[in-house]
Amino acid sequence: MARGVSLLGIIHNPASRKNNGRAPVDMGALGNRVMLRRPATHAALEAALAEFAERKVDVLVIDGGDGTIRDVLSAASLHFEHIPPLALLASGKTNVIAADVGTWGSGERALAALVAKLAASEGMAGPRRECRVAMRVAMGEARHLGFVLGVGAFRRAVELSKRGVGEGAGARLRTAAALGRSLLAAIAGPQRAEWRAGEPLSVSVGAAGVCEESRRFLFLATTLERFMLGVWPFWGEGEGALRYLDVEAPPQRLSRALVPVLRSRPTHWMEEAGYRSGRASTLRLRLGDPFILDGEAFRAGPDGMVSIEAGPTVEFLAP
């Protein structure tokens, strides 16, 4: 292939929403410099990425959703000295990462267009390149690379959306919709008292921060640069690639804070009322309930701690 791309490695998740029931990809139409693997287990994914690293693939194509991207990145970091550029086919239930960095679409036609673009002659425009810092999330012995982590009302809203929202706009916009749903449920929902009560969560910002025991209504962290629907609930100063939103429980004057939070337009009273946002290079959480990482629930380590820090910079190739 031209442009230095000599070998593509494709991870196809057959269980992703848009891939479920699709006919197998016609490998003959993609050329002989393409490797495609369909791992159905984490062990098979590890083996596929070890093979890709040994063969020195130039680009990793991920055909799946946010959870597939998280799993591929986490495994790739163990096998590649430097994670190669990624190209995304947005085939999952949630595609928040692809909405930020760009997607080639989904299905065999989108894959063929991707391969053709990367194999294009030097006279044609190459793919757009976007870089994002991945979050390195550690809980006990487990390690993951991801992009969106949420606790409290955000987790509850994501779990509700999985039960009540099918394929379509609600699925594609799940992070923005979950954030809005959590705020609205605490304002006017039938279980608003339960939502507003929050859950025990200690947050430490920065390497020298102290984890203070408290209750949080919602905590959200990301290294992405935009969500959908114009929602962007982050503001404030600080150094580091991690953006965070931290709302104490019960949330004060929530109906007045709704638009300022969702549109990143804080008013003068909000910090004192328990609405905090900023940037950091490290975050530490102590919690007993599950948290959401790129659309799926995880639990803290045996000590209840979750460590979040800036991980590797990942390059994405987009149309």
From TrEMBL:
InterPro entries: ATP-NAD_kinase_N, Diacylglycerol_kinase_cat_dom, NAD/diacylglycerol_kinase_sf. GO terms for molecular function: kinase activity. Residues 32-116 form the DAGKc domain. It comes from the Bacteria. This is DAGKc domain-containing protein.
